[in-house]
Amino acid sequence: MITYLAAQETTAAKFRLPNNFSSRKTVSVSDTSQTGLLSNVISEIRLQGDTSWVWLGTGRGLSRVKDSLNIETFFTSTDLTNGSSTGGYFPVGGVSAIAVKGDTVFVAFASSENDFPIGKGVVYTANSATENPVWIYYDQPVDLADAETFPWGGIGFVQGLPITVAQYNVTYDASIGNGYVWITSWAGGLRRYKISDGSWERVPVPEDDQLTLITCADSSYELVDGKNILKNFYMNPRDPIDGGNHNHKAFSVLSYNDTIWVGTANGINRGIFGSQGCIDWQHYAYPFENLTGNFVVSIARQYWNGQRIIWAATMNADDPTEQRGVSYTLNDGDTWYTALEGERVYNVHAQDSLVFAASAKGLWKSKDGQNWALFKPAKNVTPLQGDETISSEVYSVVLDERAYYNGPVLWIGTGDGVARSADLDGSNWEIYRADYDPEKIYAYPNPFSPNSHNVLDGDGYVRFHLGNVVSPDVEMAVYNFAMENVYNVTLDRRNPETGAIKWNGKDSNSRLVDNGVYFIKLKYSQNLNASPSNHWVKLIVVK
């Protein structure tokens, strides 16, 4: 069953600077950060203990919500040294993963080079709550070219293909538990960082055709050239047609107590830790298990009324009968159930009695896993403060029950900023996004494609940044290059449904305008003592 929550409207689209923009006004809040966001793409959200802090993984680095009003983004550097303090600076790139536990924070970075995704390294601190935390930087973990065996679990060695480059070696998820930071890095596989000594280690998981992998028993090893080698096993993330295993392409991870769950391109793996650091694995994969699909992009744990539930965002991989959706188990993997079949889910988050799914269609909420409510896109419905995320997609979600906000708060990350709702129905949202100059008047994205930018309910939108607005109405008139009027509208900012000041690229006959240059006249007042005046914006439309 599907129901809808809240009466709002929005969409998320990747932020693009207006073409006439060359600088950003900033105010330094410390030697290593500046105020505000640098990117509207928010893919990761993590809470910091009992503080008010919220860590944000953005398309342009690491940001932190310090309180209900202030956000800072940390400066970056290309001169970081492997294994050394960053001096408070961070790698250049977008944030691909964040893990937080107590005062420990771990962040991974990524970018693309020649259209190839590439890991840009990770940072770690054990004292994030101090005024000047010490962050340690590590290059993206790789292997030496001749490292065809690696020590494992205090019991023996494992054979594997050395992963020697950062290309396709991007850390997409991280989890802190059992004395380690666990990371999943696609071609880089599953690895762990030992907190006590700062060392890195590859972690074997089952091959595609293995239902179990026992690495804690002496009988699983054989003596080869003086080394105890794990029998009948080879770690190789290449495609099966090239002798590799999809299950060695790791994407998501969850660690707690003596257990670890790992999602890959070939299902879900549950591991139980041995006494010396080894792991015994159980492998669950479609079609043998009731998963919607084998590509597992997110894993979450719910504990409610004495029952533990493991949730996973599962996508179609190789088999044409697989599909997108959510898979979950009530008994640690013995039986699997599915929900939201057909939906592209990016992240799952569970807390107390509630489970949330951030998806391409929006944010979903459920209390039982079978009946789901779909939120309307985030919108600030406060009169004269109207705003919205112009996108249906939600990439990340966190339920915040810390005392700072005097009640449950819901955070979501979109391609059009981060939003916070003071109730669990999403009836009104506070929206934070990059502000490239509070006083400038501009349109974005520019050029604008109504077929692909900010698509919401079938229409694409261009947003107008107006600076300070005090008049209740904004009059918009759109003219083509010949200065012929093609569209007019008056937007009432007192109306909660108005949302952002935007245009869908259509003329007065609801037809998409032709490609070309357009001039938009926006009439409004910028201060209480002034009459409304005209403000002009030049926009290029390219369908």
Write the layout of secondary structure elements.
Blueprint: E1 2-5, E2 33-35, E3 42-47, E4 54-58, E5 61-65, E6 71-74, E7 84-85, E8 94-101, E9 104-113, E10 116-125, E11 136-138, E12 149-152, E13 156-159, E14 173-177, E15 180-184, E16 190-194, E17 199-202, E18 212-214, E19 221-224, E20 227-230, E21 250-256, E22 259-264, E23 267-273, E24 279-284, E25 295-304, E26 307-315, E27 325-329, E28 337-339, E29 345-351, E30 354-359, E31 363-366, E32 372-375, E33 379-380, E34 387-388, E35 396-400, E36 409-414, E37 417-421, E38 429-432, E39 442-444, E40 462-465, E41 473-479, E42 485-492, E43 502-503, E44 516-524, E45 533-541
Task: Describe the protein in words.
Strand 9 and strand 10 form a beta hairpin. The N terminus is likely disordered. The chain has a domain of 100 residues: Immunoglobulin-like, CATH 2.60.40.4070. The chain is mainly β and 543 residues long. Helices cover 0% and strands 44% of the residues. A five-stranded mixed β-sheet has the order 1-32-31-30-29, with no helix packed on it.
